[in-house]
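Supplementary Note 3. Input sequence used for the single-chain structure prediction.
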Amino acid sequence: MAAKTAHVMWLEEMTIQDIPYVGGKNASLGEMIRELGKKGVQVPGGFCTTAAAYRYYIKANALESKLREIFKDLDVNDGANLAERGRKARNLILRTPFPKDLADAIAERYIQMCGRYGQSGEKYSSGVLSYDVDVAVRSSATAEDLPTASFAGQQETYLNVHGVEGVLESCLKCYASLFTNRAISYRAHNGFDNFDVALSVGVQKMIRSDLASAGVIFSIDTETGFKDAILVTSAYGLGEMVVQGSVNPDEFIVFKPTLKQGFKSVISSTLGTKEVKMIYSEDGTKLTKIVPTSAGARKVYSINHEEVLALARWTTIIEDHYSGVHGKPTPMDIEWAKDGQTGELFIVQARPETVQSRKEINVLRKYRLLEDGPILAEGKAVGAKIGSGRACVIKSVKNIDKFRAGDVLITDRTDPDWEPIMKKASAIVTNQGGRTCHAAIISRELGVPATVGCGTATETIADGDEVTVCCAQGETGRVFKGRLKFDVMETKLDALPETKTKIMMNVGNPEEAFTLSFIPNSGVGLARLEFIIANHIKIHPLALLHFNDVDSKEDKEEIERLTYGYKNKADYFVDMLASGIAMIGAAFYPKDVIVRLSDFKTNEYFRLLGGSHFEPKEENPMIGWRGASRYYDPKFVDAFDLECKAFKRVRGELGLKNVIAMVPFCRTPEEGKKILSILESHGLKRGEDGFKCYMMCEVPSNVVLADQFCKIFDGFSIGSNDLTQLLLGLDRDSALVAHLFDERNPAVMKMIEKVIHECKANKTKIGICGQAPSDYPEFARFLVQCGIDSISLNPDTVLNTILDIVELERTLK
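The predicted structure, written as discrete structure tokens, is reproduced below.
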């Protein structure tokens, strides 16, 4: 190959096979220019020096012996020693100019590059310059005998470089950066000799993103390893700020499968603060400078959705190409830039992603307590985990500021106002509540162990005590004094058997959906809109539709802040709700994702911003104005329209046809028909474009009139919590009768058995999404014996339940 011996080459002369000679960055740029330019992917051109040029430079100046002398007593574990050796090596390089023939070759290629970009000049001679194309000069370390070695991030990059002298100076600085302290240490710790590694320098045309925006793209979710997501980040100015992590960028998630089908699949948009940006320096003393962004610019996205989609389409082209080159799926880490002069988008770097794509995710984790200690409190266990930390006793939500990340929250009870600190807790303990209380529900969604209904935990646990909360010993959760030792056993799931009964999951938090998708499942049996509305939207829908009617000044100010940039505030509700649904729908695509329409009670809606003006006060909200009865009520129908619009967007614009709507608390068949009529008016008609609508079976009338309901809806999902409450005539939140609440009551089980048989007779799908099968293995076995189609569980109980049901199904054959 020419690259093996040549000193300077055009990027388009390179292919991915030339990594040993020009490093991963330059080889990748050449590969994309040659192979992907014809597919529409724009990559700025340029040239590069080769590893042969670096070795020629070292040999011509007799530097190897001098460098070996510097490193003869190197100790990378001694900070002072490492710093001194690195400084001496860099200074040696910077004091040693290029041999004239190599300098001339670099200069000549830069002059030709100026001509390519319309800035011609005289031939380089005696330092006379008359050309000034701006370029990025990037280091690309390589090892000729170790083509798979990665040295990403170890060397330097110089932006907005002009003129031959500037290019030569920056190339020499790149050579010197081969001996930064971090690079020397990296090589030592990874077993590379300093002289096995050479350096290629890429000189690439700058894109004027200092006048626009730039960022990084991953073709895999960086937090979870979910491979069907594309993460696009963007901030104002040169992309180096995003690459370095020096700015909080805008973030967009694009779903690959439906993007490839032609849908506009931006399923999530998160506004970054973008407080500063890097731009060209104009004073001549430095190449770039960092300046604040304007307050207005921070409040709007730095690129629009069409640009996000264009970048995402290029990302799929790049990923597909490299997957073909490597013969296996190859998630990519990509840098991009937008030219502020032309408005064009460019890809400026692409390399394989090397963190999430290599992680092992197919494992089951089981927690086990290894020692004992004094018990401070006992209650009902939620989740099968163990957490420990400093006890933080808080009796009023007004005092949550005292909570620190990693503390164990000890309180009387929780509601949505507590959620900002619940997600930071290592465990949660409450005096009040059962398995369906707020603390229990949210802790499951967050994956945080909780012990609820302890009675006097705020009295028996002292603020500041070190405690361990164990929820891995069955139905009883215990709070032990001290930080006790525990371990986590991991089991690989490669050979996990399949069940005839579909095992689905209850998922509330869109932010956890990608992570939860790795647990073996048949889809989502319950996705609750309440979590999205309370935690992401935070505003009562009617307060957005009738903003001027909101009577709280504080609420109005907060609503204005949250909806900044929306001319029509109701669009904020639709956007945020559609995004939340889409994240869950995408995570489990193409499996069914059953999304329950909003089921807030009046007291819960009351707590949303602006809610106090629009909600009546009811003595017993649990059996009041909730679910289906709201949707067609003239006082709420406009708010329900927003939910319908969000559903239509998820299915129609984003292409997530696997999302199924489910109507909660539908008391009569007539109510069901009214709701279906409203959905149809929004283009959501049963049987068209694959749309299905299920109903919750949670009111006794749903069982008694199951035959009629089966003719209206496509499926049932049993809500065992409400069905038990209404059948036994008790308030599950009342401590006075809480001991009577048990889904295993014979009356409840008979009702469930009856409705399963009715649905089977009508060939209507029936599942369960209530709490009981998650808490009680024997209840799950009962459902299987009745022939239920699916069981939707809390994520932490899925794996054990699968194993249990496999054994049961074997005995039923």
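The chain has a mean pLDDT of 89. The radius of gyration is 31 Å.
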